[in-house]
Amino acid sequence: MAKKRTVRSHNPSLLDLPGIWFGHHLQSVIATLGRLMDTPLPTGMTVAVIAISLALPASLFVITENLRTMAGGWDQTAAISLFLKLDTGDRDAKTVATRLQSWPEIAKVHLITRDQALAEFRALGGFEEALEQLKSNPLPVVLAIYPNAFNSTPERLERLQARLLKQPESDFARMDTLWLKRFQAILDLVQSAVMLLGGLLGLGVLLIVGNTIRLEILNRRIEIEIMELVGATHAFIRRPFLYTGAWYGLLGGITAWLLVSIAVLLLQQPVSRLATLYRSEFDLQGLGLGATGVILGGSILLGLIGSWIAVNRHLEGAEPG
Fold it and tell me: pTM above 0.85?
C-alpha cells in the first residue's frame, strides 16, 4: 500500500518578516535601477535636467561662500586709520596710542611708524625710482584703530572717527572697513536670493520627476491594472515608482556635485593667477561635506515627493467613484 506523503506548508514567523520586507525592498531597488539602465538616453536626459537645476544654485552658493571667506581675511584690517600730523614724532605717537588705547570704544591700537610705513610702501614695488629721489621720509605716523564689537557698526564708527579727528595730533582719518560691512550685507542679500532660487529650482525638479514618473505609469498601465486585479496593495504598486524617483534624485544630485566640482577645478588656475597679481594666495573651496549632504539628501527627497504625488494621483483616479 503506497504511503501518503504529507506536504507541510511553511508559514513565515514574525522573525522572518523583517527579512522578507527587506528582501522585497532590495529587489525593488535593483529592479528599478536596472529598468533605468535599460533606457540610457531618456534616463540621461532626465538626470541632466535635474543636475543642471541643482547645480545652478549650488554654484552660486559656492561663489558666495568663497567671497565670504575672502572677506573674512579682509576683516582683519583696521576699522579706522588715523593719520597724525607730519611734525608728530614716534615718541609723541606712542603717547597718543597709549591715550587712545584707554578709550572704552577701542579694543586695540597699532602704531605704524614713518619708517615702517616707508618700508611697506617699498615692498609694494613699482615705485623704486621715485622713492630713490626722496631726500626725506614724507609719510606720516599712522595709528590703526580696532574698535570693539559693540562699536563696529557704521554709525558708531562714524562717531568714533569724528572723535578721533578732534585730537590735536590728528591730521585726517580713513574708515577702512565700512565698505567691507556693506560688501558683507550684499553677500547676505545674494545668499537669500540663492536660497529663493534654490527653492524655485527645487520645485522645478519635483515637477520634472513627477512628470517622468507619470509617463512611466502610463507606459505600465496594463501591468498596474493586472496587479490591482490580483489584489496588490497600493503600497506594493507604489514602491517601484518611489524608488525610481529616488534614483532620479540621487543620480541628479551626484551629477550636480560633479558639475560644481569640475567648475571649481577649472576656475582655480585663473583665480590663483589673479591672486598672484595682488601678491596673495587664494584657494577656491568647493562643496563641503555638509553642502554635499544637503544636495544629495534634498535631491532624493524631491524625487520621492514627485513620484509619490504622481503615483497617488493615478491610484486615486483609478479607484471607483
Answer: no
